[in-house]
Amino acid sequence: MAARSQYEELARQLSAVGAVKRGIARILPAECPGGSAAVLALLSQHGEMRISRLAELMAVDLSVTSRHVAHVAEHGWIERSADPADKRSRILRLTPAGNAVLGDLNRRIAEMFAHNLQEWSDDEVGQLNTLLARLRDSFTCRSSGGCAPGRHSHGCRTRPADSDNGSHTRTPV
């Protein structure tokens, strides 16, 4: 286990990640804010799903997810169809237009990182990707605030990566 000072420095460094997130937000087109981009990315990676599953993957409240879904549906980037198993529920599916928007978003973000990390080696970028994925996987709880000390045995369950095939969720935001 690392020293407490290491965790304190990690907290400072992670709070500075806000600058990276703001940089990403600045390059997103006005019609596709971060929440909408996350909806598109998750539907692309995980395939069609109910809004409840999407809210779980986004780790936000269902009402917040509903607003993002309404926005992308209004733009024609997703379609909502009746769930054959439960006609009261809707299945969300990415449209070709949504795939095109997502492709543009991914291109913009990749170009931003390429520009800002141009002095990093492929190995350094790979190490960062590996460590960030490992950090995310260490916080697999979906409860508010992640897993607090001592909560594993009291309702805070851990689980493997978000998808059945072991791949990692990659969202543009």
Description:
The chain is mainly alpha-helical. Helix content is 55%, strand content 10%. It contains six helices and three strands; from the N terminus they run H-H-E-H-H-E-E-H-H. Strands 1-3-2 form a three-stranded antiparallel beta sheet. Helix 2 (34-46) crosses helix 4 (62-74), helix 2 (34-46) crosses helix 5 (96-116) and helix 3 crosses helix 4 (62-74). The chain is globular and about 55 Å long. The model is unreliable at 150-171 (pLDDT under 50).
Distance between the termini: 30 Å
Number of E-state strands: 3
Beta fraction of the residues?
A: 5-15%
Compute the number of helices: 6
Helical proportion, percent range? 40-55%
**General form:** globular
Q: Please state the CA-atom Rg, rounded to the nearest Å.
A: 18 Å
Structural class: mainly alpha
**Main sheet attributes: strand count, strand direction, barrel closure:** 3 strands, antiparallel
Q: What is the arithmetic mean of pLDDT?
A: 84
Strand/helix succession? HHEHHEEHH
Strand line-up of the largest beta sheet: 1-3-2
Low-confidence stretches: 150-171
How would you summarize what this structure contains?
It is built from 6 helices and 3 strands. The chain has helices spanning 4-27, 34-46, 51-58, 62-74, 96-116, 122-137; strands spanning 49-50, 78-83, 86-94. Helix 2 packs across helix 4, helix 2 packs across helix 5 and helix 3 (51-58) packs across helix 4 (62-74).
